[in-house]
Amino acid sequence: MTTCDSQTMDRALGALSGLSLGDALGMPTQSMSDQDIKTTYGRISTLRDAVHEQPIAPDMPAGSVTDDTDQALIVADLLIQGEGHIDPQTFAQSLLRWEDSMRARGSHDLLGPSTKLALEEVRAGADIAGTGKTGCTNGAAMRVTPVGIATPIKGDTDRFARRVYESCQVTHDTLPGFQGAALVAAAVSYGMNGADTHQALQSALTAVSGMQVPAAWSPKANVLTRARISIDLAQASASISNDEFEDRLRAECGSSVEANESVPTAFALAWRFAEKPTEALLSAANLGGDTDTIAAMAGAVLGACNGIGGFPKDLLDQVASVSKLDLAPIARRLVNLRNRQDRRAQ
């Protein structure tokens, strides 16, 4: 393996590991208010068991991942099988099988609202060309990291947009759903190319603003505009405390499952903590709202830009052990897929 390939592999593994670590750090606080988090846990400063009262993941042990990581690995598997493509019908069936398996194990941690609605329509025999037309949440963004790892963005943003859209269509076939996913995937892909975090975030905003896909219009606030505002907030708040910054994120960006809140908030955290990736994930875990997904998205971007060394090995090892993850072979296959696509473009 060449030095260049070693660096690329390190960033790919960093993206997947950052995603899973963020997911696990946010697991015990997901869907809770910031005040409930403080009352229940104090402040999250490491991996924690979920309390019995946790609304989504009661009693899950520290280091457990959620649907964010599970679905990202489904996307990775489909990309590898499809040589860079995801067939929407195959994807829908894979998600349905995953949901059934989670139910059989008694898990409460199932699908987000947009994905659940779309897949109920698929089960009922609906045409997948129309099932994602109301999906404006972050379900596509939380699972899209493998697309960013496997797909070069430089030189062919149209191809990149098509690959992201393939991962969105069945559940999030809307402009907010697509833009949220495209921003995360693009930032990861730029990180894979060697960009630092600030460069990757800015480049992603520029690239996605020019992408055209047949996604449905939505009256909701624009994801790109809010992401730019969130980065402005992070830049303007450099001198304030982390507590004050988190208060401003809640008030000015939001931390709900909506793509136009959670993706911009993840970008703001990645910007502020560009050189302290773990701090970004811990901040996300304490925000309240969709903590696991915000932390997972920020972790993916920061991991792609900093490599796996940006995160504590003991925490990564705990997540891998508890959640039975073996990410290195997946990262290697995605990097090989990226390299093949790079060669075809030359």
Proportion of residues in β-strands: under 5%
Per CATH, the superfamily is: ADP-ribosylation/Crystallin J1
Content-based structural category: mainly alpha
Number of domains: 1
Q: What is the overall number of helices?
A: 17
Label the overall shape: globular
Q: What's the β-strand tally?
A: 0
Largest sheet at a glance? none
| Poorly predicted runs of 5 or more residues | none
Mean pLDDT: 93
EC number: 3.2.1.143
Protein name: ADP-ribosylglycohydrolase family protein
Enzyme class: hydrolase
Binding site for Mg(2+): 66-68, 290, 292-293
Structure write-up:
Its cofactor is Mg(2+). This is ADP-ribosylglycohydrolase family protein. GO terms for molecular function: metal ion binding; poly(ADP-ribose) glycohydrolase activity. This protein has helices at residues 3-26, 34-41, 67-81, 88-104, 113-123, 139-143, 145-150, 157-168, 175-192, 197-209, 223-236, 242-252, 259-272, 277-287, 291-306, 313-323, 327-345. It has one domain: ADP-ribosylglycohydrolase fold (Orthogonal Bundle). 65% of the residues lie in helices and 0% in strands.
